[in-house]
Amino acid sequence: MIHEAKLMAEQATPNRETPLLDTVPGALANVSRRAMLGGMGALVLALSWRDPASAAEKDEGPKKYGADAMPHGWQDDPKVFVAIAPDGTVTVTCHRAEMGQGVRTSIAFVVADELEANWDKVTIAQAWGDEARFGNQDTDGSRSLRHFFQHLRHAGAAARLMLVQAAAKQWNVPVSEVRAENHVVTHAKSKRSLGYGEIAAAAAELPVPARESVALKESKDFKYIGKGKIGLIDNRDITTGKAMYGIDTRLDGMLYALVARPAVYGGKVVSYDDTEALKVPGVVKIFKIDAPEIPSEFQPLGGVAVIAKNTWAAMKGREALKITWDDGPNAGYDSVAFRGELEKAARAPGKVVRNQGDVDGAMAKAKTRVEAEYFVPHLVQAPMEPPAATVRIKDGFCEAWACTQAPQATHDRLAKKLGLATDKVRVNMTLLGGGFGRKSKPDYVLEAALCSQAVGGAPVKLTWTREDDLHHGYYHTISVERIEAGLDAKGMPVAWLHRSAAPTIGSIFAPDPKHELPFELGMGLTNTPFAVPNIRLENPAADAHVRIGWFRSVSNIPHAFAIQSFVAELAHAAGRDPKDYLLDLIGPDRKIDPTSIGDVWNYGEDPARYPIETGRLRGVIEAAAKGIGWGRTMAKGTGLGIAGHYSFVTHTAVAAEVEVGAKGEVKVKRIDIAIDCGPQVNPERIRSQMEGAVVMGMGLALSAEITFKDGRAQQNNFDGYEITRIDAAPKEIHVHLLPNPNFSGPLGGVGEPGVPPVAPAIANAVFAATGRRIRQLPIRDQLSV
Amino acid sequence: MTRHAWLAAGLLAAFTVPALASPCADRLTKVESLAKDKSKNAISASTGGQAGAGARGGQGVTGNSGAGSAEAAAPSEKSAEAGKGGDLAIQAKVALDEARTADGKGDETACMEALGRAQKLLATAP
């Protein structure tokens, strides 16, 4: 019954086929507003637009960083992002994927602020995948606002200037005498004014002003930026069930599909018998999807697809299939045994990736030595909405509706897979019910396309079940981190040797790479900013046996867990306060050029504009410590722990208060998380992201783990893969935003940096509460004996 | 000390310091500058969405591309060569740090050996 009710709700919800202005994208978003715009024949600014500023166009030298260096660069053309209807409704186009981080809201109010638009008259439209038009759309790497804040400000300001110019022209007065404020252009001398809707058509006829002629607001004049007063624009729809996610897409005549995929990475279908499956009422078609060669990149894993008249029939049909599999080369993968291999690798010399000073010499002379190994298991992103996509191929044109973080990559792969010209494909971006890196891979959209193709182009919605998501994911790597330190008489390190052994993400792109890639090493390993004279970092070889992918904050998770736990161990060995010891290890305030310590990643940002600033790291650690009341007397069985970490060009620290019960159960009572991400465009969303990061970080600290046996993931659903549940969430999460009013300065990332310090802070708090050191995640029942 | 004596000491220092620096140390400074430049190249080339960055990195390190990657739409202008650059820059930096340490110990031979290794790596880095 529930399923039927849902279907009815889907049927009642308009989809993208609702008439819309060609220039106002809006797949599945705010339909009533868009329909109204269409009905009124809105005169919009978006008549023509200029190409995004790619690296080639703005060739200021051989090196490009940040948004300049991204595929298709950035865009700041107001005609791309702003449309104004005759009734004054301003529609801002969001070209990034919304997955709960609030980017639709932030982008809209950044543009609206510079435009001097009244927020009550602003609505948002969702772009489709078209980077040639919108600039880069890869919504990953914590960089939507980092890369687009200034450009979107410019788009809004340019639109405001065009409105002013149009009014000045109409009134025959100098532009300098006309002012745009709160949705109205005014000529004070003549006491004339026009609403934005009244002048928009004339403004749209004007050329876009040259960039250098557009003046941005001073930050003191901001109305929305940095104020934290605007809630999530989609909040009401989300909380009332009206929001349309990828899995909610519904088209006329749509069929439904599931795929039976090989349980082992690299497995193939030997044969299959669909006799019984075809007897299931509603099953329409069953066909084989060829397995890709390994490494499979973002390609579907192959298997047998079942297409039916409803999802339930597709599920039952899939259950009835009889498939003989060849499990392939990873059939023997056992993640518990593999941990032993990683430990062995980490106990022997590996590929050196940073070698400062003379570690061996200093280690030999050290007064004492401390060593420890840390383990982090495979994880899976497990977004609440599993991967889902709908594809229709009609008259040689493929249209997809997908919850994707990477619409352009999806677009390009669809074209290639179907043998279509790129202008014969369109990818509509729906809301994402979480992404965390999983939905940057378009394999599920390609599966949907193959299904549609198999039924003559009819629309097919391909759904992954929760079990599919856990069994066939792009898993977070598995790692063993071994750290050894030689200490001086004061207990401070004079030598630091860290070996990080983990299968690399590169293994899904190239055959048999044994070592982590520079971007993985640059996530909290090579760029460790400690004031230690002798440092050697090594990366022993490690094979990959599953698809390794990006999980929110990626390699920062194992690196931060190991390093921040080890620092607390050193503090204990030295009889020091962990927070004071950590600050001493970070050393005096300084700006470190990441390249000077062997980091050739730096999140793609200019090392001169984005140095590692130890003073800011110190600042967040002190803020978190102050927030939680560091140093206060703790009751028996409770303790405080702290960790700080630099990631995604942002500094973050977490202080945790835990209580460990008589049976070893860990209760996180309070978390204080401090972040210095530069200027804060949307403080409300930063707080939200930090809270979400705490909850996600708690999950991987306490309970989440994917294990493999015989090449197969052992967890099926949230009963086995335990993320943080509401009764386990801390009663108090306090977010501390370190102020930075310089809105011309560099922005740091926000989406991911909150995660890495959570687990080590909790583990350190457990030690403070119990005297037992946590060296492997998740903590689960380690304290129960 | 008189003003003349300070001047004499200063001049002496000015002329003796370069003479004390080893040939390896002199070359090190120049090569370190080149390495920094290559590192910046690697940063510049490494940015991108996950598909592009991962493919470049993986293929750059191994020199191979997988079958699946052949279907990838990673920007060709930043192909495996860019990924290769990051790893080479790291290895060059490691060698230079070794050279710097050897120089600090007065081991000219080890310094020159590590320096040569770094130069060779940098010569092949994009």
Quick summary:
With 785 residues, chain A is an alpha+beta fold.
In terms of topology, how is this protein built?
The complex is a heterodimer of chains A (785) and B (126).
Chain A: H1 2-12, H2 31-40, H3 66-69, H4 78-81, E1 82-84, E2 90-94, H5 103-115, E3 122-126, H6 131-134, H7 144-171, E4 178-181, E5 184-187, E6 192-195, H8 196-205, H9 235-239, E7 255-260, E8 268-273, H10 275-279, E9 283-289, E10 303-308, H11 311-320, E11 322-326, H12 335-346, E12 351-356, H13 359-365, E13 368-376, E14 388-394, E15 397-402, H14 407-418, E16 425-429, H15 443-454, E17 460-463, H16 466-471, E18 479-487, E19 493-501, H17 518-521, E20 534-539, H18 556-573, H19 578-586, E21 591-592, E22 612-613, H20 614-628, E23 638-647, E24 650-660, E25 666-676, H21 683-702, E26 708-709, E27 712-713, E28 732-737, H22 758-770
Parallel strand pairs in A: 2-3, 7-17, 15-16, 19-20, 25-28
Antiparallel strand pairs in A: 1-2, 4-5, 5-6, 7-10, 8-11, 9-10, 12-20, 13-18, 14-15, 14-17, 18-19, 21-22, 23-24, 24-25, 26-27
Helix pairs in contact in A: 5-7, 7-8, 14-15, 18-19, 18-22, 21-22
Chain B: H1 3-20, H2 23-46, H3 50-62, H4 80-104, H5 108-124
Task: Describe what this molecule looks like in 3D.
- The complex is a heterodimer of chains A (785) and B (126).
- Chain A has 785 residues and is α+β, with helices and mostly antiparallel strands.
- Helix content of chain A is 30%, strand content 21%.
- Chain A folds into three domains: 234 residues, 2-Layer Sandwich (Aldehyde Oxidoreductase, domain 4); 174 residues, Aldehyde oxidase/xanthine dehydrogenase, molybdopterin binding domain (Aldehyde Oxidoreductase, domain 4, 2-Layer Sandwich), CATH 3.30.365.10; 218 residues, Aldehyde Oxidoreductase, domain 4, CATH 3.30.365.10.
- In chain A, strands 9-10-7-17-14-15-16 form a seven-stranded mixed beta sheet, sandwiched between helices. Chain A has a five-stranded mixed beta sheet with strand order 12-20-19-18-13, sandwiched between helices. A four-stranded mixed beta sheet of chain A has the order 23-24-25-28.
- The longest helix of chain A is centred in the first third of the chain and has 28 residues.
- The radius of gyration of chain A is 27 Å and the shape is globular.
- The N terminus of chain A is likely disordered.
- Chain B is mostly helical and 126 residues long.
- Helix content of chain B is 77%, strand content 0%.
- Classes of the chains: A alpha+beta (785), B mainly alpha (126).
- Chains A and B meet through β12, α14 and α17 of A and α2, α3 and α4 of B.
